[in-house]
## 1
Amino acid sequence: METGKQSVGVIGLGLMGAAISERLIEFGYRVHVWNRSRDKADPLIARGATWSDNPLAECDRVLISLYSSDVVAQVIGQMQTGLRAGQIVIDTTTGEPQDCVALGQQLAQAGVSYLDSPISGSSEQTRRGEATVMVGGCSAAYAACNDLWPVLGKSVFYLGASGSASKMKLVSNLILGLNRAALAEGLSFAQSIGVDPAAALDVLRGSAAYSRVMDIKGQKMLTGDFRPQAKLSQHLKDVRLILNAAADAGLNLPLSMTHRGLLVQAEVLGCGELDNCSIITVYQDTSSTVREQSR
C-alpha cells in the first residue's frame, strides 16, 4: 500500500475529476485514479497517473468527483473495504447537503474524516487553477489538506461543519446559473432588435451589467462553441437540488423555477451533454418558431 503526503486518490474522471487529476499530476503528486469506464483514465495514465481498482485502499487522502450524492454513497459502499481510520475523503461533488452530513457521520464511525468540498468554476477554470473551493467538515482534516487546496483552486473558503460547503455551493450555483441564463437572454434580445451580439458583449463587459460569466461563456455563446466545460444536464440537477432545499426551507424561488424550465427545454433540444452555455439555444429555437408563426 502506497501512503504518504504525495499519494492522492481520485474517484470519478468526468470533466471535473479529470481536471483535478491533471492539476495533481502537474504539482508532482502520485495520483491513483478510478472511474466506472476505465478508458477515461487512459489520458491521465499517459501523463503519469496510476490506475487503481480501489484508491481508498491505496491512499490516505482521496478526492471524489461524481454526479450526485447518491452515486458517491454507492461508490464508497463498493470500495468500503479500503476504508481505515485516519483517512480523509474530500468530496468535490455538488450534492445534497443532508446527504453530505449523513455520509460524514457514516465515515466517522470508521475513523475516516469527510470534507464536502465542492468547486465553483468550470473544468477549464479548475485546470488553470482559477476555481473557488468551499470546504465543510472537521477543521483538523481541513488543515491536514493545506497542501492540496492551492492545487484545487485560487480561493479556498472553510465554512464550518459538514454540509455547510454543499449549502454554499447551491447558493453559488443559483446565482451563477441565473447570470448565465440572463446573458443568453440578453445576447438573444440584442440580436432580435438589430444589435450585433458581439458588440453588445463588448459593451456589457464594460458596463455595470458585467459578470464573470461574460468572460467565460460569452464568446462560446456567440460562436456556438458548446464543447462541454460543465454539462447543461448537470446544472439542471443542481437547480433541482436548489429548489428542493428552498422548498424544505419554505422559500419560493420564482427565478430558479423559470431557470429550471429553460434547462428542461434545452435538454429536449438535445443540449444535455453540451456545455451549460448552450442554454442560449432555447432562445434561438423560440425566435425561429416566432418567425415561422408570423409568416
## 2
Amino acid sequence: MNVDTSKVREITRVVTAHRQREGAGFMVRRPLPSQGFDAADPFLLLDEMGPVNYGPGEAVGAPDHPHRGFETVTYMIEGEFEHEDSAGHRGTLRPGDVQWMTAGAGIVHSEMPSARIREAGGRVHGFQIWVNLPARDKLMRPRYQELAAASIPSATSENGLAQVRVIAGEVLGAVAAIDTRTPIVFQDWTLKPGADVTVRLSAEQRGYVYVFASAVLLGDDATEVEEGQLAALGDGGAVRLRGHAEAIAPARLLLLAGVPLNEPVARYGPFVMNTEEELMQAVYDFRAGKFGEITRSAVIG
C-alpha cells in the first residue's frame, strides 16, 4: 500500500467511552472494546480508571487475577497503586509512573490503591492498556519494566503550547526508554489553548486518539473530539493536534498507534490467545497452578 507520508490523517470514526465496573468494584471509562468497536489491532483494551475521589475505606482495585498472552501497561496520572505478582515483583506506582508488564506464558497479578488511599481516601486517576502479543511471543517468559515519572522522556513544541510525555515510540526528538515487545506509540499530550502541532506517524501504523480532558481538534479538517471519546485515524504519515484557542483549560489526550498483527484473536477474560484450544489450555494451566500464586508474609503485631 502506497501512502503519502506527508498526508495528515483525518478521523474515520469516533467512539464514546462507556462506564463499566471492574475488579472488586471500581469504575472505568472504556472506549475499547465497546459496542461495534471490539478491537484496534494490536490494542485489545483501553480503560481510564477514574478520576475518582475516594473517602476513607472506599477505595477498591483488582485483587489477584491471571493474565496470559498479552501485555498490560498501567500509567498513573494521580494517586497511588500498589502491585504485586506471582513472580515476586512488588512496587508502588505514583503520579506519572508507568508499569509495563509482559504477561507472556502466564502470571497472577494484583493492583490495588495504596494502603494510604484505602485507609484515608484520596484521588485516583490512571490508565490501563492491553497490547496484544504476536503468536511467537504469547508463551514467552513474563517480564516487567517499571519507570518512575522522572525517567519518562518529554518534549515541548517550539512555541511551548504543546507538551508530550513519551511512554512508547518517539516524537519531537524524545525517544521512549521502554522496550516494547509489540512496537507501539503511546504518548500523553497536553495542549494549551491555541496549540497546533503536527507530528510524524509511520504510515504502517494504525492511529488512535483518546481525549481525557477538555476537547481537541484533529486533522486539517479540525474535527472536534470531546472528553471521553476515542477517534480512529485514517491513512497518512502525520497527525495534527490542536487545542481550542478559546479553551479555558489545557486539553489532555493519549496518542496511540501500532502496526496490526493481523493474527486471529481468541479471548476469554484475562487470557488472549490465537485459538480456542489455546484458550482452553490457558484456563487448564491456571487452574492447575502453573501460573503460581502471590505469596504474602503474615503481619504479626
## 3
Amino acid sequence: MKINTAEFIISNSDVSKCPKEPLPEYAFIGRSNVGKSSLINMLTGNKNLAKTSAKPGKTQLINHFKINQNWFLVDLPGYGYAKVSKKTKEIFQKFITDYFEKREQLVCAFVLIDIRHEAQKIDLEFITYLGETGVPFCIIFTKADKISRTKIDSHVAAYRKALLANNWEEMPQHFVTSSLENTGKDKLLEFIDEINDGIFKNNS
C-alpha cells in the first residue's frame, strides 16, 4: 500500500463523537515516549501529521486521520503517564477503554513497545486487557535502530516468554520498526492493506 493522502479529521475525548463513517479503523497506542508520533509520521510519509514532542504525553485526545479516503488511523493517548495527575490519568483511561470496548469500526489495535527495554509490566498488563476484552491487536516494537539485532531478538523472546507464562497460547503478531530508518513500514502497511481488502470484498 502507498499512502497518498492523510488528512486530520477530528480530536475529541468522547467516543460517541468519533466519525460516523463505517470505515475500518486502526488504533495506535503505547506508553508515553514510545515513539508513536514518529511512527505515524513515518508510515504516512508526513513528518508533520502527528505532533512529536520531547515531553511525553503530548497526545491527550482521540485523534482521527483519514488515510487514502478509505480507512482511519487513530492516534490514542498513551497509558502510564509519569507526569499527569491521578484525575487526568483516570479520565484518559475512561475514554481509552470506552474506545476499545464501544468502537465498532475498530479493526485492529497496534500496541507500541520500545524494543530497547525488556518486558515491562505495564505493557504486559495492557496487552492482557486487550486479550481479555477481545480486541484484535498486534505489537509494534519501536526504535529498532537504537540496539543490535541480537538484543532485538532477545527482547522479543523475553516478551514471548512473559506472555506464554501468562497463559497466552502464542506470541501475538508483531512488527519490528524504526521510524528513523523506515524499518517495518512496508510490512505494516501491507498487513493493513490485506485486512482492508478482505473487508471491502465482503462488503461489496
## 4
Amino acid sequence: MQYFSPAKVNLSLAVSGVRADGFHDLDSVVTLVTLGDDVFLEQAEVTMLEMQSEWVELALMPEDIERNLAVRAVRLLEREVGKALPTAIRIVKRISLGGGLGGGSSNAATVLKGVNELWNLGLSVERLCELGAELGSDVALFLLDGTVRMRGRGERVARLNLPDARPLSLVLVNDGTHCSTPQVYRALDEDRAVAGDVAEKDLTNEGDFCNNLHLSLHKGEAKAVAEAVFNDLESPCFRLFPRVQQTAEALKAAGCEGVLLCGSGATVCGITDSPEMGERVLAHPALQNCWRASVQTLPDGVMAAHGPLTPIVMVRIHVGQPVCLQRLEQN
C-alpha cells in the first residue's frame, strides 16, 4: 500500500500562555501542500523501517529507530488493539527535516491511517486523531484532508471546508539552520515577559483572523492571503537565528506577495500569485544555496481522489544519502 504524506504550512499561528501540562495553547490555520514523502506499507514477519532520501539529510534522523514517529505509530496501534502488527515501512523523504513543515508528524499520521487499513483494524478517524495526539501536537491535523484549524496544544482539529478553493502558490526555502522549537517558544515567553504582555491574543473566541484567512483562501487571492497570515513565533525565531530572517528578506526582495515563518522554523514560506512567479522567485541569486521548492496548497479530499501531486520545482542540494534499513523485533 502506497500513501502520500504531505508537508504542512501554518498560515496563521497564534500562541497563548503556558498550560498546566507545560504546552502552549495554540490557534492555527494549517494547510497541506503538494510537497510530501511517499510511505509504503506491507504486512511482514517483523516490523522493518527503510528510509530513502531524495532531497534531505538522513543523518538528522534519530539513531534509535524506535524513536522514529512512524515506528512509534505502529507500536501505539499494537497497544490499542492488543496484538502485534508487524509492518514493513519504507519512506522516501522529500520534506526537509526539522524545518517546521511537519514531515515526521505527517509520516506518523500516514502510518496510523495506513496500518489501520492494512490490518483491517476498523478504528475511526476520531480515535486515530486521539492516538495521534499522543505522538505529537500536530499529528492529528494530518489525519484530515485539506485546510484545518488547529487549537489547544494541537489535538483539537476541525476542517475549514474549502472544497472549491483555488490552489494557492507557495515557495518554501530552508537555508539549513536548525531551529530548536523549545528554544523559540522560550524566547517568545521571554519577549512577552519583558514587554509586560500578559493577555497576548484572546484565543477563547473565533477571532477575525481565522474568518479573514478562510475567506481569502476560498477566493485563492494571493494578496489577500498575504495580508492575513501571521506567526507569533516569527519574531523570536528571527532574533535567535538571523540567517532565517535573511532568507525571509531575500524572498521579499525576490517579489513574493507575503512571507512568513513555517512553524518554529527554519523553513520560510513565500506567497506568490502564480507557479510561474514561484519559479522566478526561486531563481533569485540569494537563494541558490538553499533547499527550496515551489508548491501549491492541496484542496479538500485531493489525496483520496487523485493521489499525490508533483511539486512544480524541487531543488536538490544534499545528494547521495544512504538507505537506512533496520529490522525491529516485536516488543
